[in-house]
Amino acid sequence: EYLISRVKSGKLPESRIDESLARIIRTKNKYKINEWQPRTVKQIQRIIHSTSKSRFVKNTTTRSITLLKDDQHLIPLKVNPAEKIFIIDPYHTKFNLNRVVELSKQIRKYHSKTVSCVFDVDGRTNQAGVNRKIQRILNQAKQADYLIIGTVDALFFPERAELVNRLLKLNKPTIIVATRSPFDYLAFPEVKTYLATYCLYDS
């Protein structure tokens, strides 16, 4: 209605609309937008999981890893062969994904004295169960020289934030790896070394 009123009043010549329309059509033809057809889910999955796309995703996610904080100067991590690394692999439960992000699988390729566990609690785990699992992890962490803690959505799961904060009180060299949202940092601001990876998937 606005355009029609502008044309009728003489404030907008029809030739100006024709020019704009022609420019839109040229752009659509240039990028073959008019030929676009919606993809099926199977087609999309086939494209995403193709070798070239997988390589692109791996390169992009690797380059996007961000070191937000390293007050301990732990990165790059230099560990003696005799020293033990204890890793907590996070368990992703949102959106019914229900999968472990296997940080330990990758780190074990470079350091054999790597011990790991999964902190697989969510909102359905009662407090007694949470306390037992946290205490078991604390006992394991005390035997290690370095801690690497993977996190997923700690802001939405207070028990995950509680675990990290209690581990930080052990005063061991600790690296936090946020495997999804970088904002997990807000749940444990006392952390001294913090990496954001923005990605849940193994390389």
Notes on the structure:
This protein is an alpha/beta fold and 203 residues long. Helices cover 38% and strands 18% of the residues. It is built from 7 helices and 7 strands. 22% of the residues are buried. α6 packs parallel to α7.
Describe what is shown at a glance.
With 203 residues, the chain is α/β, with parallel strands linked by helices. The chain has seven helices and seven strands; from the N terminus they run H-H-H-H-E-E-E-H-E-H-E-H-E-E.
**Kindly, what is the distance between the CA atoms of the first and last residues, rounded to a whole number of angstroms?**
54 Å
Question: Radius of gyration in whole Å, from Cα?
Answer: 25 Å
Query: Major β-sheet, in short?
Result: 7 strands, mixed
Compute the average pLDDT: 89
The global form is elongated
Low-confidence regions: none
Q: From the helix content, strand content and strand pairing, which structural class follows?
A: alpha/beta
**Helix proportion range:** 25-40%
Q: Output the helix-strand order.
A: HHHHEEEHEHEHEE
Q: How many helices does DSSP assign?
A: 7
Number of strands: 7
Proportion of residues in extended strands = 15-25%
